Amino acid sequence: MKRLLPLLTPHGSRSRMTCTFRCGNACDHPVPNPTDNPYFGDVVAAAVSRRSLLKGSAAGALVLSAGGALAAGPAAAAAPPQPEGSTRPLGTRVDSLDFEPVAPNKQDALVVPRGFQQAVVAAWGDPVVPSAPAFDFEHQTPAAQAKQFGYNCDYSTILPLGRSRTGQERALLIVNHEYTDEILMFRGWTDGKAASLEQLQIAMAAHGVSVVEIERVGQTGRWKLVTSGRRSFNRRLTATTPFVVTGPAAGHELLTTKADPTGRRVLGTLNDCAGGTTPWGTTLHGEENFNQYFEASGAIDPAYVDAFKRYGLPTGPAAGKSWARVDERFDLTKNPHEANRFGWIVELDPYDPDSTPRKRTMLGRFKHEGATVTLAADGRAVAYLGDDERFDYLYKFVSRDRYKRGSSATIHRHNMSLLDAGTLYVAKFTGDGTADGEYDGIGGWIPLTSDKKSYVPGMSVAEVLVNTRLAADKVSPTKMDRPEDVERNPVTGSVYMVCTNNSSRTASQVDEANPRPANKHGHIVEIDESRGDAGSLRFDWRLFLVCGDPNDPSTYFGGYDKSKVSPISCPDNVAFDAAGNLWIATDGNALGSNDGLFATPVKGPERGHVKQFLTVPLGAETCGPIVSQDQRTVFVAVQHPGEIDGATPEQPASHWPYGDQPRPAVACVWKD
Ligand code: FEO
Ligand code: CA
Ligand code: CA
């Protein structure tokens, strides 16, 4: 169906925060895609019951699901399981969207709608593994941080865990720790060169992933960290945890280093941003802005300069975070291949706390926002993958083999191999060819490589996977306005691609899929794969939201009356509830208010009725979002509260959540 959009008008460019805190994508570094390609912009299935670890758990394991709910088809998530013996009134379900919108604000608080409550579940420094000490801001150590909840929580998901001995519902909360704000973590911080080695090691230990058990509080929608008793699932991944490299590029010469001549064993994961939850009960984590961790003490081997440039890595002497002072592998002059060992999708099996996490090379290497898995009509696994950089691309992986249902160890091993063989594609969006203000069209998936055969001339399978951006540049995909989360709606089957912003797009570079120059508020593209099959190689697309102040004529809210919607800017992470409503978290609100979480129906007369559900504290971005399977609780990751230029521990810009130094945290919101 065609939808009419108003003529879009150029905005003045406005860069948001400078790069004091991170090399995110909003700063003014050069755009690394120099090509002249066209500018066209379930529930975790019953598989969890397979796990022998859970077999001793009480019944009713499917209490919660990830926000990134998965389904083999649109109907699969239509009837969410409810907690046993549930007699709760419908009024506590969030998927009814019957809340009064929170007004834009600049409060240093997590502001939720009237009638709702909120509480922190886990904050930076909270004990994760047994023997972890209590958090002490003034006496941090690397050893303590490696056992505590990390910094800057991003992707968050929940897997069911049955009930405790006392009958309380339990779950696993898995959380990415994307990066660190050293200037807010340490008093007197100037830079990595002046830092103590211990401070650098603390920062390295504050990266990665946390797995923690959580428990429902009473019969409420509130959840809390389990801080006592058996904690066999709790674990931390950090910048030094051993990983195994799998898939076609594992062992390739480009992945070998002095410390690892096998090219198959990597220490650590970095800049894990968003992610996904697989139907077989594992979690995926996207290594995003990994380039910022690398430095160069001298020249770079000329053989690597072109690729390094395309990934924003040093091409000559350059400073990084000074981690080479702790471990020489971060110096690309001495260890050029070390950078090739980051920028992958990580797969973690949270139900097996002794398992070694994998880096899945078949899903390509770029600044992975995340990976969300759904199933094709024939049962193959499909992963949608965004490369979060201005003018970069949307990718899709389709597995060779089919997902198997079942609970045996053999079936689990089979499903754990799905992401190692298949085909990696990149997307091309084509408009309908008319300059009539309609923003929709068709598109296709261009193959880059399978596990056996490269489709890119002059590049082998492994080369395509290691330098995926260089490979994609050769097949003319569409340059997008920073593809962040890309996720399939488990109720409708449509796929939503979030383009967060792109202040660098000029008027001559606009296209129908990226229609706004100096796009500072971002937009969301709705994709319908042919025949509703995620395994298809063709799709239809249309813009669902063009974000900003609804009074701005360039905005579009799915055709809904713009006088009745909440302003929204810089969409980033998304989730779906049981009704198929789209929940949208924002990062970098360019309208002057705090970031927040919004919800909107995507079908029917309320399509595009965007309402703000919460706002996060000063300086924070909103990540995570999860709507619990019983629709009673919304979880959000509050990333970098107080991250405002000039803020320090002596002069914090935020005191959230406990009134002293700001601490990134996952919070839950519920209605009693
Ligand atoms: Fe880490 Fe693309 O946001
Ligand atoms: Ca993100
Ligand atoms: Ca972001």
Indicate the low-confidence ranges by residue numbers. 1-28, 38-90
Distance between the termini: 40 Å
Number of E strands: 31
The total number of structural domains is 1
Query: How many strands, what sense, and barrel or not for the largest sheet?
Result: 10 strands, antiparallel
Taking all Cα atoms into account, the compactness measure Rg is 23 Å
Give the mean pLDDT. Answer: 89
Question: What's the total helix number?
Answer: 8
Shape: globular
Structural class: mainly beta
The kinds of small molecule bound in this structure are: MU-OXO-diiron, calcium ion
Tell me what portion of residues adopts beta-strand conformation: 25-35%
Query: Which bin fits the share of residues in helices?
Result: under 10%
How would you describe what is shown here?
The protein has 672 residues and is mainly β. It has one domain (40-288, 343-670). 7% of the residues lie in helices and 28% in strands. The chain contains eight helices and 31 strands. The strands form six sheets. Strands 13, 14, 16, 17, 18, 20, 21, 22, 23 and 24 form a ten-stranded antiparallel sheet that branches. It is globular. One calcium ion binds next to strand 9 and strand 25.
